[in-house]
Amino acid sequence: MKRIAKNVGRVDPITLTVVWNSLVSIADEMGGALRRTAFSEAVREGEDFSTGLFDRHGRLIAQGNFTPGHLGAMPYAVENVLKYIPPETLKPGDTLCTNDSFLGGAHFPDFYLVTPVFLDGNLVGYVVNTAHHVDVGGAHPGSEAVQGVKDAFAEGIRVLPVKIIRDGEFEPDILRIVLGNVRLPEKVRGDLFAQRNANHVGAERLRRLISDHGLDEFDTLVDEILNRSELRTRELLAALPQGTYSFEDQLDDYGPGTDPVRVCVDVTLDSDGATVDFSRSSDQVPAGINCYINYTRAYGSFAMRIFAKIDVPNNAGVERVIKIVAREGSFFNARYPAASGGRASVQVRIFDTINGAMSKAVPERAMGAFSHWGNPKIGGVDDKTGKRWIMYDLIFGGYGGRSNKDGVEALAPVMNCANVPVEVHETNNPVRVHRLQAIPDTCGAGLYRGGCGTRKDVEVLCENATVVLLGDRHKTPPYGLFGGQPGATAETLLIRDGVTEHLGSKEIRTLQRGDIVSFRLAGGGGYGDPKKRSLAQIKRDVADGYISAQKAVELYGASKDELT
Questions:
Q1: Which helix (DSSP H) or strand (DSSP E) does residue 297 occupy?
Q2: Is the pLDDT of residue 44 over 90?
Q3: N or C: the chain end with fewer CB closer than 10 Å?
Q4: CB 398 within 8 A of CB 446
């Protein structure tokens, strides 16, 4: 039965606009505080974190412009935390915490901190943030291994909801337990304190905003924000062609020598909104890559925002209209204790599969498939200092071609994270980055070509280390649309003493001094018939080094004379 938002239009529009923008601004300011005070490269440089505001009823009212995987799961993390620790037991200065895979962001590295906000002794809201910690223990550095991890118990420390902060200070006993189970306690401690800083900033700003308007007026404004958001979302979804649209893709495997993982989606658009169903996908697997439903919800909801062009900030009103489901026990709705440390590897595929389905409904809004990004971790003990180190990396390739323009290179897909600078890696870890470049002839041909893949070569400068790979598209290339060609497949190479060996996309290997790991991402898929691409665009691609003259002849039908 369709739920319709009621009583819209009861408040002064100027006041509504000021408060609504203020809420979003507070969430963004929280992110700034978190970024500036973080210790790890993952948070400080890669911006792998998110922030949000909730009203006193636990409803999401605003989020910062950060990574969708955290943002979409945040409402469920807050709901679950408050089931363990009821609001009536909270006091000023408390902060709650969990990193549980099922209750929170679907893998242990994501720590959620939930801080209640009080005004005149009354609970008036919550400020929340989550950050990806560079290590939380487990079998391998970085705590995101896929290979050889059969259940969650091998993935690191699990923190069920607890009061981690009282009277504004961390509980020393809880903090000691957490830091005693991780490889880089200084960085984990620093990032936890940065998360506290962010919530402190958000709580002060939210308290001031509510004080300015009074709690009753604020409650009325929040209801208006959520109801207007719901109505706008319904309006935009209703404008899409109604029906059910399906698409299938796959992940390479769930570790060396294993079968592909089927990724199947059915998107239904009707008078009640949108339902995105992943139930036809593979069953959950005995490896560290499964998706819990919160993570599937996060990226499924994000994708539908894109294709419906939902233009209101994300909040509980938007979430009322978009339903994300998957069969229990399937890959996208795993049962605990399914291992899920490497679930970040799946986020692009969730979007790509919905993109394929929606290309049948709104082809002008779809695109060729992304390069699959790379999220490798290399870690060990530094010979010179005797300290443990982990190089947490984010490597981004090309976007797919779109209906009116080419894909771009080296840009984060669907996650709003950032490249970690080469200088930061080399300063903080015993590594040398030999090469970081776009790879020619990897982009999928089309009327609008896909973006090129990215190559990054990293040499190890200590006696031994471990590389934990988290990638994909080594076997199944990023698809093209409407006559566009697929991009080139990815590959990961280990170069030792001049001998090159191919590695699997989710493999774990021991490295030694002088080894070079060459990460080579896939190219983005093309859009439209390559034969219709203009000669001027082809010549420009050749001049820029994106494609060779030989490929220009083979893929686009250009003659050698035309290219000179």
A1: helix 293-308
A2: yes
A3: N
A4: no
